[in-house]
Every structure is written in C-alpha cells, then in structure tokens.
Fold this protein.
Amino acid sequence: GYVYKINDNLLLKFSYDDDEAKAVNKIVGKKLNYVIDYHKIFKLKSKHISDNFYIILMENVKTNKSYFKGLFDDLFSSFNKFEQYQYKKSQSFLNWEDIEKHMRSGQKNKLLIQFESFINSFINSDKIELQKKGKNALKLYNFMFNLYTELGKYGLNFYDFWEGNLGFRDNVKLVAFDITSKGGIKIKQELKINENKIIKYNDLLKEDEQQDKDDKDDKYWEDKLDKRFYSEQFILDIYPDRPEDQYIKYFNKDFT
C-alpha cells in the first residue's frame, strides 16, 4: 500500500490488500500490546476503481529496518544452529515453519522450550558476540510468540511478518503493523468521494504501474517520485487547506 504521514502520531494508508483490510477491521479500535493502534478503516467506493481499495487511519511508530534486520538475522542464525543440533541428536529435519506453527498455538511445547534453552546457552556463553546474538534472538522470539498469541485471540494468523513490519511505540516498545491474515472481517463501512478526484488519482496509479512493468530494473524508482507522492496529492485534493489535526474529525464524515 501507499502511506501518507499526517503527523508524528498518525498515518493514512491506502491498501489494495483484502487480507490486510479484513484483519485490520477485526482489531480496529482495540488497544493491543504488540500491534499498532488502528483507528479507522473504510472501503473506498467508486465506479472508477475495479479493485478493492481501502483507506486505513493508523498509529505512526518509529521504524529502524537495519536494527530489526539484525534481530531477524540473529534469530534465524540461532535457529540454523539449533536445527543442526537437533539433526545430530535425532536425525530428523526441522524447519522454521515448525517453530512458527507452535508459536501460533499460544502454547510453549517441548520444541519451543528446547529452542529457548538453546538460545539461552548463547546468552550464558563467555563470548560477547554470542551473548549479543542470543539476547537479540530471544528478544525477537519472545515478541513473535506474544504477537502471535495476541492475534490468535482474534482468530488472526499473521503471515507476512518481517523486519519491515516492526516499529517502536514511544521509541521503546516493539509493535507490529501491516497485519496480513486470513480470518478477518469484511469491511462494510464505505466512503464515497468526488469522482473527478478519483479519476485523477486512478489515472496516475495506472500510469505509474504500467511504467513499472515496462522498466526491468529499480533505477526507474530512483528517477521518479515515489508512489507516496500520489497519496499525498490525493489527500491534498480532498482536504485542501485543512489543518492536520482535523484529519480525524473529517475521517468520521464522507469524503466530498
């Protein structure tokens, strides 16, 4: 999807992803511990949009992909060593999906307990590098277990979790966003908007997407404004000269 920053606390996202929209709709308005706050979600109704098109008002959190990638690298590196250890021990193959499957159950079974113990052996090592790897791995592992458990209470099974879906709430607490999952709820709330505005926006997207197909490398994106520009233009067209702190107020009304 395309994201437009409203202010330091709020983002406005445009999404074509049905699974994301339905998942968000199941937790919108709820205060979760391991997921950002989703304030509003609407399906945009227009005869000029063939695909489902959703507008999501959500919490803005601080991201740090390089740091989060480091957490993932350390967790998967720890798992690879655990996998080798398990194979030598039992001659049976293990993959990451086995770990995730049990995490999603919300119960720490024998396999998870063994994996945690293996990570802790790094933390208890006398090597500083191994200690750091173990602490990072355990931090992300515990977060994932708690995240999957929390979403599982709503019947959601987050299947697109990576370093790009993580952020810091209040610069401290880890939270996930861009929740994609089966088991969500269909969006009934619809927004109607000025058709002239959506024609303009939709044409820009079609032009952009076609150009994307024509270009075979990433250099195109370096030479052209990001798609987020269009999201910004769309919002500015709909809400000209309105202060940012009024967005929530107007989100309770139809776009006109």
Summary: The CA atoms of residues 4 and 232 lie 6 Å apart.
